Automatic annotation (TrEMBL):
It comes from the Eukaryota. Residues 107-133 are annotated as: Disordered. PANTHER family: COMPLEX 1 LYR PROTEIN, COMPLEX 1 LYR PROTEIN DOMAIN-CONTAINING PROTEIN. InterPro entries: Complex1_LYR_dom. This is Complex 1 LYR protein domain-containing protein. It comes from Nannochloropsis salina CCMP1776. Residues 20-70 form the Complex 1 LYR protein domain.
Amino acid sequence: MALPSAHAATLKNVAGKSSVQLYRDCLRVADHIASKSPKGIALRKMLRSEFKKNAAVDDAKQVEQLKMNAARGLANYLLYESGSKEPKIRARMNKTTSDMIKQCMDNAKRERERKEKAERGEGAELEHFHVKI
């Protein structure tokens, strides 16, 4: 699956930045998004804790992966914020979210039932998943 050109360009741009530059860019975006509101304060606090948590990582490959994750997270947040202002996109996002929650709940219920069967000593059955193509 090909990335949209703007998204690919963003990720390419992130790859050349130092972690400090990326951290400062993230804080600037957080300030732009929510300034001094509670949302902005929480976003900056989350950014600070994530960067501190990973400050000791010295593997270059892992650092690049973390930088890409930060860029994707901000891009997803910006997409979510812009989409929430457009009624058609907001409706689609809400439907997707509720479908995903339902699917997770169904999977958790199946897993609980499987564990309960195993605890009762009933024969383990393989579950077959049917995928529509």
